[in-house]
Write a structure and sequence with these properties.
about 500 residues; alpha/beta; Rossmann fold; ten-stranded mixed β-sheet; three-stranded mixed β-sheet; 17 helices; protease; carboxypeptidase; EC 3.4.16.-; Ser_caboxypep_his_AS; signal
C-alpha cells in the first residue's frame, strides 16, 4: 500500500474507532471509578464543565452516561430536573440513573451503589445537566448571574448544548431529545424552542433534534391552578357535597378565587387534603423521625391495599414529609417563583429527605471522581438550592407546545396519576385544549403484560400518557413502566 494510502487508511480507522468506541470524547472528563460502587461500569461515564460565559466565569456542570446499547446510534437525551433550583442529580440518584443507591449503613460511611436494571441509559445516551448557574455544581464567578428566569435559563442551556456537542462531535448524528419533570415543564419547551430556532437559523453545530418529553410538568397557571380540585374529588379526597359547593361558589376558577366565599370553600379543600403526601397520595406522610409509627398503621390492611403505591425499586424511595400543595397555590408575585428552600422555610411545601444524594455528593472523593470543582459550591452541596432568584418570565407553555408540535417535533407529556403536586388532571386538560385531532383514542397501555396507565394520541405527534399508581417523579415509583414508555417513544414505536 502506498504511503499516502496508508495514512488515509489510518486516519479513517481512527475516526471509526472514535465513533464506535466514543473515544473522541474528552478523556479528561472520563470517570474511571465512583466511591460506593464496586464493579465495572456497563458503559462509559463522563462529567465536567462547559463554560458558557467566559467573561463572567459562568460554568454549567454535566454528568454524561453513554448508552449500554449502541452509543453511536442510540438517541442522546438531555435530562433536566425542576425546582426551580434543583439539581439533575435528583434524576441521576433517585430516578433513572445507572445506579440504585443504598443508604449508608453507618454514620461515617457512603451509600452503596448497585446497577439499576431500569436505567434510561439502557436505551439512550443521557446528559444530566445542572441548570441554571447556581444549581448543583454549576456556578458563576459573577453573582449577578444567580438572578435569572425562564428565558435566560433556556438561552444558557442552548449555549451549553452547542458547546457540549463541540466537545462530543461523534454524537451529533444521533437523534436528540430534551426531557425533564416538574418545573422542567417550563425548562424543556423553552429550551426546545431555542434549539428549534437555532436549527432554522443555521446555527452550528446543527443538532439532530427530534422531540421532547415532559413529566408531571408545570405548564400554564390556569390549567395547573385549576387541576387540584377535580383531582381531589376524583380520588375521593373531598366529598361530593364540598365539590358541588366549590364549583358553585368558584365557577370553575380555583386558581384565582372570585369571592371570599369561594376562598373559604377552597380552605376546606385544603383542610381535607392537608395531611397527605402531595407527591404521591398513596405513600405515607412522614411527620418526623419516628417513621415506624407511621408505617405500622398499615399492618391491619389487606396485603393488596398495602401494596398500593409501593415502588418496584429494590431500594426505598425518598421519605417525604408533610406539607401543602405546590406549585398550584404557591405565592408567586410579579413573576417571581420561590425556590424550594424558600418555600421550605415558609412551611408551605413538604420537606424532603435527600440524605443519600447529600451524603454522597458532599464526599470529597466523590467530588474528585466526578470532576466537581470546590469553588462551585459555597458550603455543602444541596439537591435544591436557595442560592438563585428565579423569575417565571416566559408565560404559559401552551404556545411553546403549539409552536413546536406544529413544526413537526414529537412531544410526550406523561403524568403519574397519584401526584397531587402537579396533578394529571391539569396536563390532560391542557393537551386536550390544543385542539388537535384525536388519532389514538383513550386506551390502556401495558407494561409486563399489565395495564400500566392510559394514553391518548393527538395529531402533530402530541401524546398524553398516565402511569397508574405513580407519583410526581414517575421513574422513582414505577421504574419498569417508565423505561418501557421511554424506550418505545424514543424508538418511534407504539406505546
Amino acid at each position: 500500500m502506498a504511503r499516502s494510502g496508508l495514512v488515509l487508511y489510518t486516519v479513517l480507522l481512527l475516526l471509526c474507532s472514535c465513533f464506535v468506541l466514543t473515544q473522541c470524547a474528552p478523556e479528561s472528563g472520563l470517570i474511571t471509578l465512583l466511591p460506593g460502587f464496586n464493579g465495572s461500569f456497563p458503559s462509559k461515564h463522563y462529567s465536567g464543565y462547559v463554560t458558557i460565559d467566559s467573561d463572567h466565569g459562568k460554568r454549567l456542570f454535566y454528568y454524561f452516561v453513554t448508552s449500554e446499547g449502541d452509543p453511536s446510534k442510540d438517541p442522546v437525551v438531555l435530562w433536566l430536573n425542576g425546582g426551580p433550583g434543583c439539581s439533575s442529580f435528583d434524576g441521576f440518584v433517585y430516578e433513572h440513573g445507572p445506579f440504585n443507591f443504598e443508604a449508608a449503613k453507618t454514620h461515617n460511611s457512603l451509600p452503596q451503589l448497585h446497577l439499576n436494571p431500569h436505567s434510561w441509559s439502557k436505551v439512550s445516551n443521557i446528559i444530566y445537566l445542572d441548570s441554571p448557574a447556581g444549581v448543583g455544581f454549576s456556578y458563576s464567578k459573577n453573582s449577578s448571574d444567580y438572578r435569572t428566569g425562564d428565558i435566560k435559563t433556556a438561552l444558557d442551556s442552548h449555549t451549553f448544548l452547542l458547546k457540549w456537542f463541540e466537545l462530543y462531535p461523534e454524537f451529533l448524528p444521533n437523534p436528540f431529545f430534551i426531557a425533564g419533570e416538574s418545573y422542567a415543564g417550563v425548562y424543556v419547551p423553552t429550551l426546545a424552542f431555542e434549539v428549534a430556532n437555532g436549527i432554522d437559523d443555521g446555527v452550528k453545530p446543527v443538532l439532530n433534534f427530534k422531540g421532547y418529553i415532559v413529566g408531571n410538568g408545570v405548564t400554564d397557571d390556569k390549567f395547573d391552578g385549576n387541576a387540584l380540585v377535580p383531582f381531589a374529588h376524583g380520588m375521593g379526597l373531598i366529598s361530593d357535597d364540598l365539590f358541588e359547593e366549590v364549583n358553585r361558589e368558584c365557577q370553575g376558577s380555583y386558581f384565582k378565587p372570585l369571592s371570599s366565599t369561594c376562598e373559604s370553600k377552597l380552605a376546606k379543600v385544603d383542610q381535607d387534603i392537608d395531611g397527605l403526601n402531595i407527591y404521591d397520595i398513596l405513600e405515607p406522610c412522614y411527620h418526623g423521625p419516628s417513621i415506624s409509627t407511621v408505617t405500622a398503621t398499615n399492618d391491619r390492611l389487606p396485603a393488596s391495599f398495602r401494596r398500593l403505591g409501593e415502588t418496584e425499586r429494590p431500594l426505598p424511595v425518598r421519605k417525604r414529609m408533610f406539607g401543602r400543595a405546590w406549585p398550584l397555590r404557591a405565592p408567586v408575585r410579579d413573576g417571581y417563583v420561590p425556590t424550594w428552600p424558600e418555600l421550605l422555610n415558609s412551611n408551605s411545601v413538604p420537606c424532603t429527605d435527600d440524605e443519600v444524594a447529600t451524603t454522597w455528593l458532599n464526599d470529597k472523593d466523590v467530588r474528585k471522581a466526578i470532576h466537581a470543582e470546590e469553588q462551585s459550591v459555597a458550603g455543602a452541596w444541596a439537591l435544591c438550592t436557595g442560592r438563585i432568584s428565579f423569575y417565571h418570565d416566559a408565560g404559559s407553555m401552551i404556545n411553546y407546545h403549539k409552536n413546536l408540535t406544529a413544526r413537526g417535533y414529537r412531544a410526550l407529556i406523561f403524568s403519574g396519576d397519584h401526584d397531587m403536586c402537579v396533578p394529571y388532571t391539569g396536563s390532560e386538560a391542557w393537551t386536550r385544549s390544543m385542539g388537535y385531532e384525536v388519532v389514538d383514542e383513550w386506551r390502556p397501555w401495558t407494561s409486563n403484560e399489565q395495564v400500566a396507565g392510559y394514553i391518548q394520541g393527538y395529531g402533530n405527534n402530541l401524546t398524553f400518557l398516565t402511569i397508574k399508581g405513580a407519583g410526581h417523579t414517575v421513574p422513582e415509583y414505577k421504574p419498569q413502566e417508565a423505561l418501557d414508555f421511554y424506550s418505545r417513544f424514543l424508538a418511534g414505536k407504539r406505546i
